[in-house]
Amino acid sequence: MADFSDAYARILKATGCDGQADLSRWLGIPQALISDSRRRGEIRPEILLALLEQFNVSPQWVRTGEGERHFIISTDKIASLYGMKIYSPHQADRREQ
């Protein structure tokens, strides 16, 4: 993992939070979890998961600064997660004929 302070700075930038108290409130996690991460010098998995769930922030980007900040997922991918299929208007017209 990159330096903790770099990862923490990326988290604050991505969330727009001012500090630990603000971040813990937005992520819905105890502030002690953030303090523990700071003490250990690593971002705890619980924080990475909360960032993903609340802000769609990529754990890889938080940890390394590499890749896309946010996950980009297509509507087709989302639909497939729910067992659905998205048709374009052109495809829908063909089905109705």
Outline:
With 97 residues, the chain is mostly helical. It is 64% helix and 0% strand.
Task: Tell me what you see in this structure.
This protein has 97 residues and is mainly α. Helix 2 (20-27) crosses helix 3 (31-40). The chain has helices at residues 4-15, 20-27, 31-40, 45-55, 59-64, 75-81, 89-96. It is built from 7 helices and no strands. The N and C termini lie far apart (56 Å). It is elongated and about 50 Å long. It is 64% helix and 0% strand.
Low-confidence stretches: none
For the biggest sheet, the summary is:
none
How much β-strand is present in the residues? under 5%
Derived structural class: mainly alpha
User: H/E order of the elements?
Assistant: HHHHHHH
Give the SSE map.
Elements: H1 4-15, H2 20-27, H3 31-40, H4 45-55, H5 59-64, H6 75-81, H7 89-96
Helix pairs in contact: 2-3
Kindly list the characteristics that best describe this protein.
elongated; mainly alpha; 64% helix; 97 residues
